[in-house]
Design brief:
With 224 residues, the chain is an alpha/beta fold. The chain has 8 helices and 9 strands.
Length: 224
């Protein structure tokens, strides 16, 4: 839908002012990825001592969410899920305290539960995420990495299990949110460096990396 266009024309309502000393590559990695992560974390009303689950942790939004959550609430405990446990050490290097396997859309937990959950896989795993959320906990539905957009046979009373379900999407971002985000990145020195940078001629390689087994974090494509 134009995401890989070299030039694009945007309505003024989608353009925001930015005050930052970030270099161009790091700045490019912020707007939708970090903005979506930050907006979602605000919905979760994080508090000191919370146990936060990020489902779909190796995605760009997942990695950004871990770094931002740590900056927002340093005492938070962050667990990430992944289908590929060989990525566990890299997740821990990016701010996660623990990593659990997501096998056949079910978390391989020891029965432990979480205060907060960021659901990035989507409807495919939402019910299972609610099962590991404490009563009065909060889950924010943000991503659709699983490719499924709707829930079937969802019975809210039993499947929410007393927890709260909310959502966030990047279309809700605004100037005030970006001002807060860049202020946080600046004051807390949040690492927003993309995992890989490609030029426009290698856009296919960028997509192949994101679709491949070794994908991790944010990838950007430069047009110059």
């Amino acid at each position: 839908d134009g995401s890989y266009a070299e030039y694009t024309l945007l309505p003024n309502k989608h353009i925001y002012t930015v005050h930052t000393d970030l270099n161009w590559d790091d700045l490019t990695a912020v707007p939708e990825t970090c903005g979506t992560a930050y907006g979602s974390l605000k919905k979760l009303k994080l508090a000191s001592g919370n146990r936060l689950l990020i489902r779909g942790a190796t995605s760009g939004v997942g990695v950004a969410a871990a770094r931002l959550a740590r900056a927002m609430v340093p005492e938070i405990e962050i667990t990430g899920s992944t289908r590929h446990m060989e990525k566990a050490e890299e997740l821990k290097e990016n701010g996660f305290d623990a990593v659990i396997r997501d096998e056949d859309n079910k978390l391989q937990t020891d029965g432990s539960q979480f205060d907060r959950g960021l659901e990035l896989v989507g409807a495919t795993t939402l019910k299972n995420s609610m099962m590991v959320t404490k009563t009065d906990g909060i889950v924010c539905m943000t991503g659709e990495l699983g490719g499924v957009w709707t829930l079937k046979d969802f019975e809210p009373i039993s499947e929410l299990q007393g927890a709260y379900l909310t959502s966030f999407e990047s279309g809700a971002l605004n100037q005030a949110t970006f001002d807060e985000l860049f202020d946080l990145i600046d004051k807390k020195h949040v690492d927003v460096t993309p995992r890989k940078v490609f030029d426009l001629q290698h856009t296919a390689d960028a997509q192949a990396f994101m679709d491949g087994h070794h994908s991790f974090g944010k990838v950007i494509v430069r047009v110059d």
